[in-house]
Specification:
With about 350 residues, this protein is an alpha/beta fold. The protein is built from 12 helices and 8 strands. The longest helix has 15 residues, at about 130-140.
């Protein structure tokens, strides 16, 4: 498969695993400051060295021995960024750098994604409801009270909006980038490549055996060629069959009918979207996205007629890559125009 391995030989060699204390969400506060947890064990992932990612990820124990990695950068009104599949917190790196001077940026890696633990199916149920539960646990621990701004991309839309429906009073502002919050529009069909991954053993083999989903996205989800170092960063966490489990399970969880596990949750999210029509909302869309295309943008516009909308005609699904400067600028302007108390 050649380059479809997407730098699998990298084996996360850029990760430094030296035993140095790292702040943790589970540590008891003292004098208003979070205390360090015990050092990571040998072979654990702590510091990273990827382009434009000068962050120290923190660790959060969900309570069952499975740990999530997340970024916690800056101070001020909290902004929670939720990624999709097959990305990780790396996708939001430039937005974090732009906002952390005035905002607290909280950016989790989903279980099985990025620098989080990657358990097998016997230890974790890879479903949308589990993802919403994970976000609920994390935010209850690290930012339990203040109003939040949600920045959501891809599957992050359903995960973040699922959380929002549990805590509507906490949602101050909404920023969506090429995502969904409803079942598939009637005039939309699942693209063939996703159907292959969702429904066939060949698709499963390509995704888990050759990292085809993550590596392929670094080429198919952008219209501007992505530098090789950034492609390696996007694909680095998915360096083995075992570590690609979530990239496949996300695809298999795409709901197409009432018998699918995520269908009921996605249907409820879609039916309740208008409840947020009174919140400031920003929709940023790469119009060359062949998955979350104009039909998805149309549905959000119908639900949220108040939303500010920016269309990027030459950008693909990874709109923060193709239209980085414009998107970051639009988000900063939107946050300034709709301030919330810090």
């Amino acid at each position: 498969m050649g380059d479809l391995d997407g730098g699998g030989g990298n084996r996360l060699m850029a990760l430094r695993c030296d035993a140095i204390d790292v702040p943790c969400a589970n540590a008891k506060p003292r004098g208003g400051q979070r205390l360090p947890c015990a050092p990571f064990p040998a072979g654990g992932m702590r510091r990273v060295n990827f382009p434009d990612y000068p962050f120290e990820p923190r660790r959060f124990d969900r309570g069952d021995g499975i740990e999530q990695s997340y970024l916690d950068e800056g101070q001020g009104p909290p902004v929670v960024m939720v990624h999709g599949n097959p990305t990780w917190s790396y996708y939001f790196r430039h937005l974090v750098l732009a906002l952390r001077g005035e905002h607290r940026c909280i950016v989790p890696d989903h279980v099985g994604m990025g620098l989080s633990d990657k358990p097998d199916d016997s230890r974790y149920r890879y479903t949308l409801d589990s993802r919403i539960d994970d976000l609920d646990r994390l935010l209850a621990a690290v930012e339990p009270e203040r109003p939040l701004t949600l920045v959501l991309h891809d599957w992050g839309g359903l995960i973040g909006l699922g959380w929002a429906l549990r805590h509507p009073q906490r949602v101050a502002r909404l920023v969506l980038l090429n995502t969904a919050g409803f079942t598939m529009p009637a005039d939309k069909r699942l693209p063939g490549l996703l159907k292959l991954g969702r429904d066939s053993s060949l698709g499963s083999l390509l995704i888990r055996g050759f990292n085809a989903f993550s590596a392929g996205a670094t080429r198919l989800a952008v219209k501007l060629p992505m530098p090789a170092a950034e492609r390696r960063a996007f694909t680095a966490p998915y360096d083995s069959w075992a570590h690609r489990i979530a990239t496949l399970r996300f695809v298999q969880d795409i709901p197409l009918g009432p018998k699918d596990p995520a269908w009921a949750t996605v249907s409820e999210i879609g039916s309740r979207l208008p409840a947020f029509a009174d919140r400031p909302a920003l929709l940023l869309w790469g119009m060359q996205d062949f998955v979350f295309d104009h039909t998805c943008l149309r549905e959000f516009r119908r639900a949220w007629p108040q939303a500010e909308v920016h269309e990027y005609a030459e950008a693909g699904h990874y709109v923060l890559e193709d239209a980085r400067t414009a998107v970051v600028s639009a988000i900063r302007s939107f946050l300034s125009a709709h301030p919330v108390a810090g």
